[in-house]
Amino acid sequence: MKDFRDLNVWQNGMQLFDDVVKDVECFPRSEIAKVITNQILRSVSSITANIAEGYGRRKGKEFEHYLYIARGSANETMDWYEKIKRLGFLSEEKYRERQRACETIRAMLSAMITNIEQK
Fold it and tell me: Do the Cβ atoms of 51 and 4 come closer than 8 Å?
């Protein structure tokens, strides 16, 4: 692979980012929605940003460290979607789609971490 953009996990993360941006555009214009929008955009952005930064370091333990951070950001994004669902900002179907996407990304990151740890 020549570039972090070749990683399937990064591509999935960018698709999730695109979907989250579309979701938050439909949120109400309340103060709480603004806070949540800010936080969820930060967490979902952090997934791909940390994959890219870690890939640039290309050293086992350093890359692994950034993958752990990216996995934590995927968990944080899942947490925000739980809150969004409880507030009624999103349909159950969209919620399940985003949760599945986060779980897939998290599983991919876990597999990459395990692979680095076994080397």
Answer: yes
Go through the domains of the chain in sequence order and give each one's CATH number.
11-21+28-117 (1.20.1440.60)
Q: Decide if 10 contacts 109 (C-beta within 8 A).
A: no
Single pTM value for the model = 0.94
Task: Return all residues near 53 (Cβ < 8 A) that are at least 6 apart.
Answer: 66
Tens-of-pLDDT digits for all 119 residues of the chain?
A: 689 999 999 999 999 999 999 999 999 999 999 999 999 999 999 999 999 999 998 777 899 999 999 999 999 999 999 999 999 999 999 999 999 999 999 999 999 999 999 98
Q: What is the dihedral of CA 66, 118, 105, 56, to 10 degrees?
A: 40
Q: Are 105 and 9 in contact (CB under 8 A)?
A: yes
Tokens of 99: 């949760």
